[in-house]
Structures are given as C-alpha cells and as structure tokens.
Amino acid sequence: MEQETARENYGRPQEIAAWLVIVVLVTLIVKTLSFIFIPLSVAVLIFFAVGIPMEFLKRFGVPPWLRILLVVSFMLDGLYWVGVLLQANIMEFVRQLPVFKQKLSEYAAIELQSFGVTVEQGKGILDAFIGSMEGKKMEPLGSFLHAAGGSFLQFIGNFVWVVLFLIFMLAERDGMENRLKNAFGNRRAERIIRVGGRISQSIEEYLGLKTLISLLAGVLTAIALWLFGVQFALLWGVLAFVLNFIPNIGALIATVPPVVMALFQSGSPGFSLLVTSALVAIHLVVGNYLEPKIMGRGLNLSPLVILFALIFWGWMWGGVGMLLAVPIIAAVNIALEEYNPAMPLVTMTRAD
Description:
The chain is mainly α.
C-alpha cells in the first residue's frame, strides 16, 4: 500500500511536468502558425454562430448545399454593405485628419498657457513632440490607417481562408457524427459528440445573446452621437458593437475615440464631458444591467479567468485573440470537465 502511494506521489510531478511541456509546445506552435490558426478559429466561431439559422433551414427541408449557400451569401452580403458604409466614413475621417491635428495643436497650446507657455511656444513644443514620434516610427493615427490599408491584401487572404474553412465545416456538419463513430467507435464517439454538443450549445447561446447586446450598444451609441452632432457616429457605433465582444475593457476603449472627436469638434471640455456621460451611461445600462439579466449565468466563468484569457490571447493573436478569448476559454473549460484530474482547475475558473 505504501509502495503504491509512493509511486503515485512520484508520478504526479512527472505528469505535471509533462503537461507543462505540452502546454508550452502547443502555445509555441499556435503562435508560430497564427496565420493558419487565426482564420481557422474565426471560421469555427462563425460556424457556431450560424448553427441556429442552419438548424432553422434544416427543419424546412432545405438541402444542405442550399443551406450553406444561403447562410454564407447572407453573411457576405451583410459584410459588404457594412464595409461600404465604413469605407466612406474612414475615408472622410482620414481626409479630415490634418484639420484634427491643427485643432489638437491649438487646444494643447491654450492649455499650456496656464504654465506660462505662449501659444506659439506651445505649438512648437507639440510639433516637435509629434515629429520625434514620427522619427521613432511611432506614427500618428493617420499614418496608422494608411499602413493598415497597405495590409489590405493580407486581410483579403485571411478572409478567403475563413470563408473556405467555414464552407468545408458546414459541408461536414450533418455527417460528422457518423464519421466520429467510424473513427473512434460508438462509445468514444458518443462522449466526443456529447462534449461537442455542450460546447456548441454554450457558444451558440453566448454568441447569439452577446451579438444582440453588442448590437444594442452599437445602435444606442450611434444614435446618441448623432443627436449630439458628433461626426462619424456610424463609425463609432460599429466600433462599439465590435469592441463590446471584448469583456470588461472593450466598452471603455470604444468610448475614447468619439469623446476625442467631440472635443475636437466643439473645443469645449464641458460638451465632451456631456458626451462621455451619455456613452458611459449607455454602456453601464447595457453591460451591467441588461447583459446579466438577458444572459443570466452565461458561460459561468470567473472575471479573473476572463481577464487572464484576454491578456494571453491578446499576446498570442492581438485584437482578434481578444475577441476570441472568451469562446476559446469556455470551450477548453467544458472539455476539461470530462477529464477528472482537471476538475479542481475547472472549479477554480467558475464564477461561483
């Protein structure tokens, strides 16, 4: 008995070390091959998101190929029109950047007067500061947007990969259960199907409700900014919609650009403070009141776990990783529930 206990105690450090090595290797592989894993992960996320309309069309006896065509076409058509509207706003925004820069210089110079600096000296200090940033390749927003436009082909390439992955996954959707049974046998396949079903249901519910909540936040943001007369209200509304998928910090980031725009337009700190109050009120009501009411317990993940997931996947894949962080950690959490030794870890990730 003592020998068996000693063997178990000896084997545990080795098992932990082996798992750590596996985690490090997987992390390096996923980060190195991000050009494949990012579009694949986005495609998987969309695959879960379109699960509800796919099932809806299936109930009416729509053939699989027609279901795929309708869902993908509707998605691409929606992205096209949103892209057209955004392109118009972004081009106008880039065109007015010199005006914004001039206003920033004037406002900063006026504020520096309280420190005994004249307007001309303040403008000179700000121009020198911006020049030093450009020299260090810390480019201002306008240059950043132009650089982003230079990576348009890379974006198109990733977009094509996402669409291809999505089409093939949707094509295999109906026959996946039979393939798993043939590959792993009925018993193991049923377990995989059960876990996959739980992951699919949880992520579908999360994405569906989160999309509605984010859409509400984006629409309310755009309407509020339009009523205040802030330029590019549609652009900031879409930004609020997208960033609302990033828990905790997304709404805060989405508030900054329209507030800065309001300050540039009016030159009045009081007006920009009023716009800030309206946007904060929208995000507080939507994020702190409506979202918990609508989503209930949601994915039952600890806020601390979500924060670490955002940091980790942001480091791995940047902004896209932050958008995917919550669905990924939820899927991993559900999968680990099937592995008994990992139950203490799963318990620590829960919100309650």
